[in-house]
Amino acid sequence: MPVERSVSLIGLGLMGSALARIFVNQGWKTTVWNRSSAKVDTLVAKGALPAASVTECIGASNLVIICLINAQAVHDVLGDADAHSCAGRSLINYTSGTRVQAQQTQEIAMKLSFSAYLHGAVLASPETLGLPQSPIYYAGDEEVFRSIESDFKILGRSVYLGDDLALAPLIGCIMMDAFFGLAVGFLQSTALLRTSRLYSAGGAERFLLEELVPFFSHCQLTTLSDFARQIDNRKYLRGDGNGMPLSLLVQTLDNMSKTHHQYGLCNDLFGPLLNLMRARVAQGGAAEEMSSLIKVIPEPGSRCD
Ligand SMILES: NC(=O)c1ccc[n+]([C@@H]2O[C@H](COP(=O)([O-])OP(=O)(O)OC[C@H]3O[C@@H](n4cnc5c(N)ncnc54)[C@H](OP(=O)(O)O)[C@@H]3O)[C@@H](O)[C@H]2O)c1
C-alpha cells in the first residue's frame, strides 16, 4: 500500500489556493484553513479537508505550510495556535518578507514547539507554480528540506540555499530586482509605442512577441553575458574596441528622455539610471561599459565593492 502523504495549509489566497490545488490533485490528504471561509469551500469542493481552526489545521499533519499576505498576518495567525498541536511538526513558510521577519517567524515557531522551520521563496505565479522551470528557494532546517525535496517536485524546482534563513528572502529580492527591471523597460517602451502610429489593436502583445523577445533572446542576452563576465572579473573596459561606453550611453539616455517628453511621456523610470551613468562618468568611467554602474549602486559605507 502506498503511504498517504499529508499536508496542512494555512492561507488560501491566490498562492495558497494554487499550492492546495496541486497537493489535492496529486492525491495528498490536504487539510486547509483560511481566515475567510468562502475560499475553504472552494478547495473542499476539489477534495481538501476543512479545519475549523488554525490549531485543528496544524494538528492534522506533520507538515504545515503557511502562505499569507505578509509576516504580520503570519504572526497574528500563529498567535492563535495551541502549542500542543504544533509539537513535533515542521513549519514551511512561503510568505514573502525580509530576513528580519523570517527570523521572527522562526522564533515564534520554536516557541510554539514546532520541531523545525523552513523558509521558502516562491518565484512563480499561481499559473506557473508546478512547472519544472519555476523555482522555490529554501533556507533553514536542512533535514526537513531533504525529507520533502523529492515529493515537492510537484511544486516546481526546489533549491536549498543553506541553514541561514536570510538567504531565502534575499534571493527573492534578487530575482524580483531582475524582474522589475525588465518589466519597467517593457512598460516604458510599450507606453511610447502606444502613443504612435506604430500601435494598433493587440499591438502590445505582438510587439512583445515579434520584436522584444527576439531582441532580448539574441542581442541583449549576449550583452548581459558580457556584463556578467565584466562584473565577475571586475574589469569594465572591453579591449576589442566593441561595446558601448558610458559616454555614448549618457547621450543615448538623454535622447530617449527628450523623445519620451516629445511624445507626452514622463521619464521618471529612466531618470535615475541616467543619474547613475552621469555619476560614474564624473568618477572617470566614461570609457567603461554600463556594467561599471555596479560600482555606484552601493550605498556609501556598505560592504559591497
Ligand atoms: N500571487 C503571486 O503571484 C505570488 C507569487 C510569489 C509569492 N507570493 C507570495 O505568497 C504570499 C501570499 O500571496 P497571495 O497571492 O496568496 O496573496 P492573496 O491572494 O492576497 O492572499 C492573501 C492571504 O492572506 C490572508 N490574510 C491577509 N491578511 C490576513 C490577516 N490579517 N490574518 C489572516 N489571514 C490574512 C488572506 O485571507 P483572506 O482570504 O481571508 O483575505 C489570504 O489567505 C505573499 O507573501 C506573496 O508575496 C505570491
Number of strand elements? 8
Bound molecules: NADP nicotinamide-adenine-dinucleotide phosphate
Order of helices and strands: EHEHEHEHHEHEEHEHHHH
The fraction of residues assigned to DSSP E strands is 5-15%
- The geometry reads as elongated
Low-confidence stretches: none
Oligomer: single chain
Radius of gyration: 24 Å
- The CATH architecture of the largest domain can be given as 3-Layer(aba) Sandwich
Major beta-sheet overview: 8 strands, mixed
Average of pLDDT: 94
Number of helices, counting only DSSP H or I runs of 4 residues or more: 11
- Return the structural class: alpha/beta
Number of domain units: 2
What strand order characterises the main sheet? 3-2-1-4-5-6-7-8
CATH class membership of the largest domain: Alpha Beta
CATH topology of the largest domain: Rossmann fold
Percent range for helical residues? 40-55%
Cα separation of the termini:
57 Å
Q: Say which CATH homologous superfamily of the largest domain is assigned.
A: NAD(P)-binding Rossmann-like Domain
Q: Which descriptors would you attach to this protein?
A:
binds NADP nicotinamide-adenine-dinucleotide phosphate; 305 residues; alpha/beta; eight-stranded mixed beta sheet; Rossmann fold; N-(1-d-carboxylethyl)-l-norvaline Dehydrogenase, domain 2; single chain
